[in-house]
Specification:
Pfam families: Epimerase. InterPro entries: Epimerase_deHydtase, Lipid_A_modif_metabolic_enz, NAD(P)-bd_dom_sf. The chain has a single domain, classed as Rossmann fold (3-Layer(aba) Sandwich). The protein is about 35% helix and about 15% strand. It contains twelve helices and eleven strands. The strands form three sheets. A seven-stranded parallel beta sheet has the order 3-2-1-4-5-6-10, with helices on both faces. The radius of gyration is 21 Å and the shape is globular. The model has no long low-confidence stretch (mean pLDDT about 90).
């Protein structure tokens, strides 16, 4: 099968391209950089900017991909250009989306108050407010004010002439993670801190994760399986650990001698209290993907975490991560709290 991947050289993309190639498919990567990722030499490259997608329509027509996988559709305009460009050229478009489409996301961010039941299913209520990062002074990654996966999904799934598939990703971890999700915990453990203090609601909070190689496998299955036409799928590990359980699991894997402790909010300083509503769990059900496409993790969860930890310890972040929680590295305040308990 001939597959065109838009993007494909950042965090998740290379793992997807390698997986598609290993499955025996002919893969072409379209992006602004050429030969920048660790990809098989047999992978083809088409250099160009997705903002000028229609200018490359003659090249796409000559390539005649059977499937187009867009790893980076962020805005309504990008999705509309995607469908307009490939209508009549390809048989199906697969678009990568996110768990942030759900109303539960706005509850987590304290934009809505009604707690949504979890695990979230593919038909769970979506956010009522669009553009989740508009006006935010510090945005994650390359997100813009116009970022909106809900609108991307609507356009990809509503085209009568070009079928679509949507894959909603969890929090993805592993080699190359630009958010360095476990760094604050690992740094503390490496520095032999005796405790990690968490507010009780944070300690109880459960969220869905996926290891990059397993997520790539799921994307490859949905891209190449005709049963995925007109379907939306979640990718996530089968068990969603609480934050306290996750810290303890990481601690076991690095032989940390300390302990993670949950404290009442009343015992913590005001500056440690974030703006999130951790009563809203962030868990999705991935059974549709498993049942319909036969998905299962190709790297066991414990091994996934081990590999992610090894990469993170050898690749500390060079700048503050968007998701870094500053108080986790506030040792002086933590020592004072422990002395008062």
């Amino acid at each position: 099968m001939k597959i065109l991947v838009i993007g494909g050289t950042n965090f998740i993309g290379p793992a997807v391209v390698r997986r598609l190639y290993a499955m025996g498919h002919e893969v072409t990567v379209f992006n602004r950089r050429q030969n920048q990722a660790d990809l098989p030499v047999q992978v083809n490259y088409l250099k160009g900017d997705r903002n000028n997608l229609q200018e490359f329509k003659p090249e796409f027509e000559r390539l005649a991909p059977q499937i187009v996988l867009d790893m980076i559709p962020f805005t309504e305009g990008e999705a509309q250009t995607l469908m307009n460009t490939f209508r009549g050229i390809t048989q199906r478009v697969v678009a990568i989306s996110s768990m942030d489409v759900y109303r539960a996301y706005d509850v987590l961010w304290n934009r809505e108050s009604e707690i949504m039941p979890t695990p979230l299913m593919e038909d769970s209520p979506l956010r009522q407010q669009l553009y989740p990062y508009r006006g935010m002074p510090e945005k994650p990654l390359d997100f813009t004010d116009d970022y909106e996966k809900i609108l991307v999904e609507r356009i990809v799934m509503a085209d009568r002439d070009l079928p679509g598939t949507v894959i909603r990703l969890p929090m993805v971890y592993g080699a190359g993670d630009p958010r360095h999700r476990f760094y604050a915990y690992l740094k503390r453990m490496e520095e032999n801190r005796p405790v990690i203090l968490l507010e009780e609601s944070v300690a109880r909070w459960r969220s869905s994760y996926g290891y990059v190689e397993n997520v790539a496998h799921a994307i490859a299955l949905a891209t190449t399986n005709h049963r995925a036409i007109a379907q939306i799928y979640h990718v996530a590990e089968p068990e969603a650990l609480s934050e306290l359980e996750r810290i303890r699991k990481i601690g076991e894997l690095v032989s940390w001698k300390g302990v993670a402790i949950a404290l009442s909010k009343d015992l913590l300083p005001k500056e440690w209290k974030g703006g999130f509503n951790f009563a809203q769990h962030w868990v999705v059900d991935s059974s549709r993907l498993r049942q319909e496409l036969g998905y299962e993790e190709i790297v066991p969860v414990d091994k996934s975490l081990q590999q992610a930890i090894a990469w993170q310890l050898s690749h500390p972040p060079t700048e503050r991560s968007f998701w870094e929680v500053p108080y986790l590295l506030d040792y002086a305040t933590e020592d004072k709290l422990m002395s008062e308990l």
